Description:
The complex is a heterodimer of chains A (152) and B (301). With 152 residues, chain A is mostly helical. Chain A is 61% helix and 2% strand. In chain B, helix 5 (84-112) packs parallel to helix 7 (162-180), helix 10 packs across helix 12 and helix 10 (231-242) packs across helix 13 (290-296). The longest helix of chain B is centred in the N-terminal third of the chain and has 29 residues, at 84-112. The radius of gyration of chain B is 24 Å and the shape is elongated. Chains A and B meet through helix 1, helix 2, strand 1 and helix 4 of A and helix 2, strand 1 and helix 3 of B. Strand 1 (56-58) of chain A pairs antiparallel with strand 1 (48-50) of chain B.
Amino acid sequence: MDEKMLPALQQGQLAARISQLRESNEVSKRYGLSLSAAQITSLIAAESETLSACGRLEFGEGILPRLICSFCDSPYINREDYAAVLETLQELFYTYKNELDDELSDDELLEAMYKLFHGEAQGSLEYLENIATETLLKALRSDGGDEDEEDG
Amino acid sequence: MKRTADAQAFPVMQEAAFTKEEENILKARLFTLLSKQARLRTQGDHSSLREEDAAELLDSLLFTLRCQLGRQGMPLRTLLTADLGGMLSQGQDALRIYVNTAQTLYQAAMKSTEAFGSRSLSDTLTGIGRFFRAYDLRLYAHRVPSSIDYQLCLPVEGNRRGVLYVVEYLERLLIENALVTRFPQDRVTALLERTSPEYRELLINLYEPVASNAVGLGLLGRDIMQLEMTYAEASGLHQQLSALPLAAARSRVAAAANAVCDSLKLASAKHTAYLRQAAEALLPRICVSPQSACGVFSACP
């Protein structure tokens, strides 16, 4: 793989992504969370590394803005570890995408991760890192409670 | 920073010797189009794809664009400035026409092909029927989503892909079938059984033994419809042809192939050219030894 593929495009994308994450700050600020310019740059680099490690190609804005919108209201995330949590979440997101073989859409996976993070995981990223993919599917099927409520 | 498809997935650039700047422009333009294809592929559900999936989409994109460039006789540099979305759409329209052509050829093949019990030929014809249901020219135009096992005497070139491959395959199959079915069935079956008693279960081409015997018998001045040659005759052909300079031997074989097509009333140039090419390809095996010549003609004692 050529690390210098699409350099012209990357410049344009990089600027757009920085701008998107800055805009996301406007949403997260309501919950006392925001990213500095350095953190934004660092997160975009981390996402690229994750994509590379996962062998995936991103065609959209990346998952970070959507992770911010989904998770910024979390009582388990504070301003000190906000950027670190986002970095781990994006890594988990793309890893799950591969492990699930794209069985879940982006929205579904985000929803499953959110439910688990705020449910069984109680805000523990370590817990999320160690779950089986079936747990994600189960979380998505559940209505947010602790137990499955499928009709028997 | 961002990962993208392998450089090898951009053969257009590699062939055209673009400048670095042009290469970057083209990559960016293709990426924009690829993003649209990715959205189409995922119906907006996934903003990212595995690199191998993206490479497949890109392969399809380039196949269609190349097809359109080829039809219009345009240079690859056209991709730097042309409306790629429009060109893709036109390319897809062209592929639809090829699909229609393939369907017409397929119907003709289904109607006329005599499989002589060859399972691979029957299975291949069935498989091509599935092609029309499975072929996705919007996203995977370069693929042939069906099993085509039956070996042609002259295989389709490797650069033919997608529906273009199927069209070419069917055209060749019809050419082969037209010649084989000119001969009495029992003669063909006897020849095929001499060639390989298990030909029905094996991936054996039906045309080659028939074509080689017809041309060989023509060279001997015998009745080509017999499709049967003795060891002595095959050895004689070996001696006759190996004694000649290669160009002269080729020329004799080509003349014999032309004569076979004439006598079988296969007047079209494509039939003659095909038989000539097939017969000339056998020359090295005929010339190498009498035993080899006997093998080429499945000669009888």
